[in-house]
Each structure stands twice: as structure tokens, then as C-alpha cells.
Amino acid sequence: MQLVLEKRTERSNAIALVSPLIAIGLTIVTMTILFAILGKNPLLALQAYFIAPLTDGYSLQEIAVKATPLVMIAIGLSLCYLANAWNIGAEGQFLIGAVAGSWIAVKTQGTDAGAWVLPAMLVLAATAGALYALIPAICKVKFGASEILTSLMLVYVADLLLDYLVRGPWRDPNGFNFPTTAEFDPVATVPLLIEGGRLHLGSIIALLVVAAAAILLGRTIKGFEIRVVGAAPRAARFGGFNANQLIILTFAVSGALAGLAGIIEVAGPVGHLQPGISPGYGFTAIIVAFLGRLNPIGILIAGLFLALTFIGGEQAQIAMKIPLDVTKVFQGILLFYVLACDSLILYRFKLVFPNRQVARGAG
Amino acid sequence: MELVEAIILSVLAASTPLLIAATGELVTERSGVLNLGVEGMMIVGAACGFGGAWLTGSILIGALFGIIAGMLMSLIFALMALGLAVNQVATGLALTILGVGLSGLIGAGFVGERITPAIHLHIPGLTDIPLLGRVLFGEDAFVYFSIALIIGVWWFLYRTRAGLILRACGDNHVSAHALGYPVLRIRTLAVMFGGACAGLAGAYLPLAYTPFFIPGMTAGRGWIALALVVFASWRPGRLVVGAYLFGAVTILQLHAQGWGVGIPSQFMSALPYLATVIVLVLLSRARTGGSTAPAALGTVFVPDR
To answer: Which residue of A lies nearest to B219 if distances are taken between CA atoms?
Structure first.
């Protein structure tokens, strides 16, 4: 028995729509088995993961808070991936944005600086993220260096830079030697949407980003160019589209969005700069981008779903002592199933039995 | 003298996992497959390798556990990227994400445990020669194996028929298929070889480099191994040079931190990563007149029947 792929004459739109759902279903089946292997009651575990966080207002807000950076980063990454440019260093761009924005917050701390602080932080963070993302993009366009490897290497560099700053020059003098800056002033903090809640202005910004991306991709020439360069590079060359220029553009935009997400996370839910501000948002966002089929609305839904797994993972750890790493395993498996199901859009899977093959003389 | 010897020894130790992992990836890429999951396969190899050695008390069994774990991980990749014709870049990333999670899950049971690290060769007389004795005759088995491995791979790729066929698959899968070679089967074997090497390279870290397991202990070595293959222009000989150069950068920055050069330690720690970026740029720039990469690298192949 042998699995054979048969190319479809045209891509299947029906499967394009249901493939993420099939992938989620298969992941849940796999997780059930994994929970059983870990000796946990699978039904209770699934309930803790997927149902419990949806039942109280605090967790619902927390899901939106976690989804905010995921969606913002994933939107940027989807533009890159559509243009066939592989930015996998969003984690680094996120951290650099957080660092750059925090610089203003740290320098204005305790002064009577006004309402300009937060907007300035957001702008600087987006700029820094974009510039940081431009390093691999320019290395790719000018010198042909693999953007996959260079963007990934810069993640480690950004991580070390952040570590140096919060242990050295920016450390809170009253922080008992913990590697963290002092708590940001109110003017340097992202305002909450509900007094006493968790939901903050960043979630609104994320929604605006989704809307902007939907318009860019669906209604503008630039968006069309991005899609053509990725899907049909030869046609794009004939059309006179500049692929290199689009690599630079998509990297800059995705870096800016990742940087913005970084400062919103630091000036929002976290409130100060410290190591470990990201539980791997930049990498999880890659999964979000693919699960959302590189489509802005899809990414919004996928971002909320993966945020649910973060919150569910925390609750399952508290309630059932399920290790947090299960969440990462879950996310990895999910990405595999998403990619496998995507293959169904272009190909039919067929099982071929050897005897039939021999009969056709193709064995 | 003592210090020079100590530095050479530590450079060899730091280079060995890079060399083993990059050798495996070189064979994989020569068959036309880009497996970006080296980091994931390495970290799972590290967790399983340590687990095996901790449970049985045998370094050899630990190494075997690492190899098998890496191979199993690479089989997932082969199933996806070769069997289901999924984009290789995305599949490799997924493999790394999965590997990081799995290793945490596997390793949770023995974080903080210690084992007796792999013993070093000792030949009375030879090993005691000043300066060169311990470097040449006092290493652990992994170091000698890594040298044998790269020589074996060079011989296989350039001196055997099977190696020629493997390179043919990497340069033009349509022609190889037309000549009747089972492209996907050859590529699957190459991917598995890469997985075995990555698993072994990962296992080297807790078995010989540091005698304990910590989550995330590969610290990007899998990615550096990938960069090394590019650095080596897909040639085994240059791979050895590259691996030892990178090992040297890693060790020198550690020593520089020890000497207290006055540069913050984080900047020194960033050196290997920055060096990778710079080297990639310089090399890609130096290459005029076409790329030296296998022509079919990273492209999907679906045989028509």
C-alpha cells in the first residue's frame, strides 16, 4: 500500500475553508492520546484547556490580551510569507521594539513629561522593529544571504541586548537587584479599556491592523503585487513587479508590527521591561499566520484560538498539574496538521495498492 | 602552554556538536531537502540522550537514544515534506517548535540530575605528550567519531555510486526520477541520516559537554549548524573548517569574559550569532557566477506516474 499525491486541476475552495477545522480536530484527538499517556483524565484536561477559559470574564479578557501580540505579529508575518520572504525572527523584532520603546519610558521616569510619552514610545518601537527587520531583508536583497538564518540569529542578539540593559544601565535601583526596570509611569502605560480589568488599548490597535491588512491585500495594487510575487514569481517578473522591493517592504512592515506588539506588551500587561516578556510570541505567531491561512480575518480567529491554548495551558497546569510544555507540543502538532491539511487543497491523497500498480505496469 | 592546550581542547569540544549536526544536514541538503528542524531534532536528542544515559548509566545507550530520537523526529519531517509535499521551510519550523516542547516534557523528569560524563581516551605515554598529547589522544569518543563521520560522508558523496545518485536527486529530481531512481525514498533516507546526526549532536551536549540536562540547552546550535552548511558551500571539507572556526569563536568569547575585558558578557555571548550573520553575508556576496547550492534544494517533488 502506498500513498500517492495527485494534483488537482484547480485548488479546492471547500477544503481551503475547512482544512483549519480538520487540523484542529486532529490535534485535539492527538492531545487526548497525549493526556492519557501522561496519566491525566483526557476529558477533564480538554475541558481545562478549551472550555474553562471561556466561562469567566477575567479569562476572556486575558485571551484578548494574549491574542493582541499574536495577531499583530502574525499579520506582518503573513505579508512576508505571501511574498515568499521568510521572516522567522519576529521574536527578535518584538524584543527590540520593547527595548526601544522602554528607552523613552525609562528616560522620562519621574519627570513631569506629558501625554506625548506613550505615542512616542509606540512610534519609536515600530521604527526600531522595522529597522531590525531590515537587516536580514537587506542582507538578502543585496548579498543573497538566507533571510531565514539571519533573522533567526538576530533573535538571540536581541534577547542578549535586553538582558544586558535590565541587568545593567536600566535596572531599577529599588528593585532588590532583580533584573527589571522600575514600573513605568502612568503616562508611559497603555490605558486599560475597562477600569480594573485587563483589556487594554492594544487590542483595539490589533483590530485596526487586521482591518488595514484586509484592505491592503484585498483592495490595493501593492497587496496584489505581494500575492503575485509569492504565488507566481515568473508572472510577477513579466508584470514588472520588483520582488526585492517587496521583500524590503514586507520585512519592514512585519518588523514594525512586531516591534509595536513588543512595546504594547511591555507598557501594557507587563508594566516594566524584564527578561522573559515573551513566552515565544514571535514563534507562536508563525503558527497563527499559517492556521489563519495567511488571511487577516483568519489570523484574527487563529490568534484568539492560540491565545486560548496559552490561558488553557496555564489553567490546566494549576488545576491538573499538566506541564506547561504540553502547550508548546500542542502548538507544534497543530502546525503540522495545518500544513498537512493545506496539502489537500492542491493535491488529492490516494492509497495505491501494489498489485494494481503492477497491473498498470507502473510498479 | 597549559592554557593553550586547555583552549584547544575546549574548542574541539564546542565544535563537535556543530560538526556532527552540520554533517547530517549537509547530506540532507545534498539530496535536495532543506530541513530547518535541526534545532528541534537536536534538543529532543539531548533530552532523550540524557534520559537514556541517566536510566541505564551507559553513555553509549544514551547516544543511541539520542540518535533514535533524532531519527524519529526526522521521520515526521519526511512524512510531511516528502510524503505530503508540504512546504519544507514551514515543516522545518514546525519540527523545531514541536521539538522544543517535547524536550521540555521529556526532560522534566530529570532536570537537576547529573551523570558521569563520557570518559576521555587515555593512552599512557601518547596522551602525556605536552601540548598535543591530550588534543590528539585524549578526547572523548564523540570527537573521534565526528571526524570519522565527516570523512565517511566525503567518501560516500564523491567516491561511491550511491553518493552520486544522492547528489543527482539534489541537483535535478526530474532527471533522477526519469532515470528510474526512487527520488523520494533516497531523500527520506537522507533526511533520516540528518535526523540521526542531529539527535547525536544534541545528545553530545548532556553526555559529554555538560553532565546535566537543562531545557533549551542547544541554544541555537541547530541553527548555527544550518548556517555552517551554507558557509561550507555544501562541501564536507569546508564544513570541518567552519565548525572549528565557530567553536573557536564560542570559546574565545567565554575566555574573554573570564579575563574581564570590560565588555559586558552579553555582548560577548552575542558574538557567535553575529559572526553567523556576517559570515553568511560575506560568503553569499563572494559567490559570483551562480550559487553552489544543490539546484533542487527545498523544492517540492511529486512524481507523476
So the answer is: A156
Q: What's the 3-state SS for A221-245? A: HHHHHHHHHHHCHHHHHHCCCCHHH
Encode chain B in three state secondary structure: CHHHHHHHHHHHHHHHHHHHHHHHHHHHHHCCCCCCCHHHHHHHHHHHHHHHHHHHCCHHHHHHHHHHHHHHHHHHHHHHHHHCCCCHHHHHHHHHHHHHHHHHHHHHHHCCCCCCCCCECCCCCCCCCCCHHHHHHCCEHHHHHHHHHHHHHHHHHHHCHHHHHHHHHHHCHHHHHHCCCCHHHHHHHHHHHHHHHHHHHHHHHHHHHCCCCCCCCCCCHHHHHHHHHHHCCCCHHHHHHHHHHHHHHHHHHHHHHHHCCCCCHHHHHCHHHHHHHHHHHHHHHHCCCCCCCCCCCCCCCCCCC
Q: Residue B258's Cα: distance from chain center in Å?
A: 27
Whether A56 is covered by a domain: the verdict is: no
Please compute, for residue B191, the number of CA atoms within 13 A of its CA located in the half-sphere on the CB side: 31
In a domain, A133, yes or no: yes
Residue A12: count other Cβ atoms within 10 Å of its Cβ: 16
A window 53-92, beta carbon within 8 A of B:
86, 88
Q: Do A328 and B100 touch (CB under 8 A)?
A: yes
ipTM: 0.86
The confidence score (pLDDT) of residue B305 equals: 61
Which of A145, A167, A329 is the closest to B281 by Cβ?
A145
- Choose which CATH entry (2.60.34, 1.10.8, 2.20.28, 1.10.3470) describes domain B2-285: 1.10.3470
Sign of CA dihedral B43, B45, B47, B50: negative
Question: CB-hemisphere CA count at 13 Å for B30?
Answer: 27
- For residue A49, the 8-state DSSP code is I
Q: Which A positions 246-285 lie with beta carbon below 8 A of chain B? A: 283
Condensed to tens digits (0 to 9), the pLDDT of residues B134-148 reads: 777 777 889 999 999
Instruction: Give the pLDDT of residue A363.
Output: 37
From A156, A163, A330, residue closest to B220, measured CB to CB: A156
pLDDT average, residue stretch A272-288: 91
User: Mean pLDDT across the stretch A171-185?
Assistant: 87
In DSSP terms, A34 is beta-bridged to none
C-alpha cell at B256: 574573554
A349 Cβ contact partners less than 8 Å away, ≥ 6 residues apart: A3, A4, A5, A343, B84
User: Percent of chain B scored above 90 by pLDDT?
Assistant: 51
Count of the separate structural domains present in chain A: 1
CB-based contact, A181 to chain B, within 8 Å: no
Q: Which A residues in the span 303-342 are in contact with B, Cβ-Cβ below 8 Å? A: 323-333, 335-336, 339-340, 342
Which residue, among B81, B224, B203, has the nearest Cα to B141 in the 3D structure?
B203
CB atoms A335 and B93 under 8 Å = yes
Compute the nearest-CA separation of A215 from chain B (Å).
26
Name the residue ranges covered by the structural domains of chain B: 2-285
Q: Which residues of A touch B220 (CB under 8 A)?
A: 152-153, 156
Structural domain range at position A247: 69-305
- B285–A325: do the CB atoms touch at under 8 Å? no
- Please name every residue paired with A350 in a beta bridge, in sequence order, or none if there are none: A4
- On whether residue A238 sits in a domain, the answer given is yes
The model's pTM: 0.90
Residue A145 is assigned to a structural domain of this protein: yes
